[in-house]
Amino acid sequence: MTALATSRGEEREERDGPWRPAAGQVCAVLGVALLVALTASVCLGSTRVPPGEVWSAVVRGVSGQDAAPGTQDLIVWRLRVPRALLAAVVGAGLGLVGTAAQALVRNPLADPYLLGISSGASLGAVAALVLGLGAGGALGLGLSAAAFAGALASFALVWAVARRGGGFRPLRLVLAGVGIGQFLSGFTHYLVLQAGDEQQTHSALFWLMGSLGGAQWATLALPSAAVVLGALALQAKARALNALLMGDETAAALGVDVARLRRVLFVVTSLLTGVLVSVSGAIGFVGLMVPHACRMVVGGDHRRLLPVAGLFGAVLLVVVDLVARTALTDQELPVGVVTSLIGAPALLYLLDRRLEREH
Amino acid sequence: MRTAIEDLQVTLSGRTVVSGVRIVAGEGEVAGLVGPNGSGKSTVLRTVYRHLRPHAGRVVVGDRDVRELTAAEAARRVAALPQERGSDFELSVREVVAMGRTPYKRAFAGDDGRDAAVVAEALEQVGMAGEGRRRFSALSGGERQRVLLARALAQDPSVLVLDEPTNHLDVRHQVELLALLRQQRRTTLIALHDLNAAASVCDRLHVLHRGAVVASGTPREVLTPALLAEVFGVRAAVVEHPLTGDPLIAFDHRSPVAREVPVA
């Protein structure tokens, strides 16, 4: 009976559905795209370096050899490679964190930037710098811890405001997030201005708009570790995330400990956001756009969506950073400026579509 | 599995919503919960699928208190169809039904052939075979409820809990869904607004009023004009259904039983 049902089911199942490529194929394509984007990002810029030279410089760099004379090894290995890798790591992290945040608040308009979490992280990081807690070792652990604390606090605040009066509507959540985010950004601005020249590390623009300009090999380790651990933690909860989309009661009936899952998601989201913001500032809209785009291709099942969103986020941010570096001839744009230019219209489109559906 | 709700009390933000509730559904029995809005039907059901924790009393499924089981163990015994509608996240029908396998899976475990077979069989049972790739959010209300029932069946539960499963469905889809339920021959706890549907689908009815069970028994025993007047505030005659022989309630839609006169 079962075998019969299966074969008949599969046979008939080909109609009436969007075509969906296998997640493995999508990941393979995105993996290749990431390698191409990384190579392009290292090749292009104020000085052009041919791809062959890039890869030989990478080989020399990895094997610890000295720079070959007459090559661009220094630019490639010390500046561009870490920057391209940071873009990939931050992009992957933002894609994952956006996916998790959207499932957590059951709202496809969520993203750490819109929900004010990034602003909280920025404020935490800046406050730590101004108070002189920023050192915290070469890995920037102190800075990231402060950013994490800021992220967690602002997320909790937005959550509490949005849930007042029971339940939450998408618009209410976004408004609460944007409002609180602006409030916290105001504080950040103030602190950066107050600190003046003493705040040598980064400008207000860095914290509020996001930039990958500060990339070094030393700052790569912590965000990479955080993104890998975050990805594993979320992947382990992928089925539970699916269940959560159907509602708290359904999730409970499916054997998910909803309260505990929420706590885990709160912490993972805030931790990732905090670490990412501490190395790249608050880059907006990547966490919003990436899950949306990926859902259109592989659907909403988190077991497939999470890896695809991570990879696509990496590719997207590497490309966007390349654009930000090379669009203007005399100076580079902060990467967050470019993501906002793409992302804000995307948000308006999504909001419009959503409101239309609700009415 | 025999399911017994024993002396249940639930308190929500300081207010006791239900108390002293005792309901037993024998193996394979369909137990209906009926009562006016706010009488506590959903609250009782939520303790069975562990969304709410009882303040006092317990829910025993088979031989175990559901609160003594792990969340996954409980979900392998009890599947539920709550009233919530979920959200639009580009899930396909098959993905929604496959969620029913959640309590059987460890972290990182993929779906195997058995899961695929269970999902296909569940879709077949609700008449949705071949529709697995459609977008869940594009389904009609009736299809949606059938898919959600398939998700519950994919949990391979001993007990089904359904909270107003026929809400927002047209008559034909109501009849189809309830017929599907009867075919299941599983122990079922179901809250229903439609008393005539409850009378024909349920083996036993439990009438809730202001958070307490005020009557339990077969539909014929329970659904009397006196009870309908007292609990539901309506005048009605109870006759025999000309086709099925079930009790049929004929409401008098013209004159309600006098209640407190509303202040204009």
TrEMBL record, chain A:
GO biological process per UniProt: siderophore-iron import into cell
Recorded topology in the membrane: Multi-pass membrane protein
Cellular component terms (Gene Ontology): plasma membrane
Keywords of this entry: Cell membrane, Membrane, Transmembrane, Transmembrane helix, Transport
Location, primary (coarse class): membrane
Superkingdom, taxonomy of origin: Bacteria
GO MF, any single term: transmembrane transporter activity
Pfam family, one: FecCD
Gene3D superfamilies reported in the protein's UniProt record: ABC transporter involved in vitamin B12 uptake, BtuC
Transmembrane segments annotated in the record for this chain: 21-42, 84-105, 112-133, 139-161, 173-192, 204-234, 265-293, 305-327, 333-351
Localisation per UniProt entry: Cell membrane
Entry-linked InterPro entries: ABC_BtuC-like, ABC_transptr_permease_BtuC
Coiled-coil segments: none
Similarity comment: Belongs to the binding-protein-dependent transport system permease family. FecCD subfamily.
Protein name: ABC transporter permease
Organism of this sequence: Streptomyces mashuensis
From TrEMBL, chain B:
Species: Streptomyces mashuensis
Gene3D superfamilies: P-loop containing nucleotide triphosphate hydrolases (3.40.50.300)
Domain of life (superkingdom): Bacteria
Keywords, in A-Z order: ATP-binding, Nucleotide-binding, Transport
Keyword Nucleotide-binding: yes
UniProt name for this protein: ABC transporter ATP-binding protein
Record-level Gene Ontology MF annotations: ATP binding; ATP hydrolysis activity
Residues of the ABC transporter domain: 3-235
One Pfam assignment: ABC_tran
